[in-house]
Design a protein that fits this description.
58 residues, mainly alpha
Amino acid sequence: MTMYSIQEQDLMYLSMKTIIGHRTSILTENRRLSKKNKAPNLGFDNFQNIRKNNISDL
């Protein structure tokens, strides 16, 4: 097994954390976007659109 200096170990640990963190943020963003596209938005935005278009029924 290769012996690494403390600095090298720190660098490897940090780069690994960065890669994992980056991947996690991409997955979170994808999940957020897919939810946003799938789920109908029945919140405030929808209410504003209904008022704007003068649609009486939901």
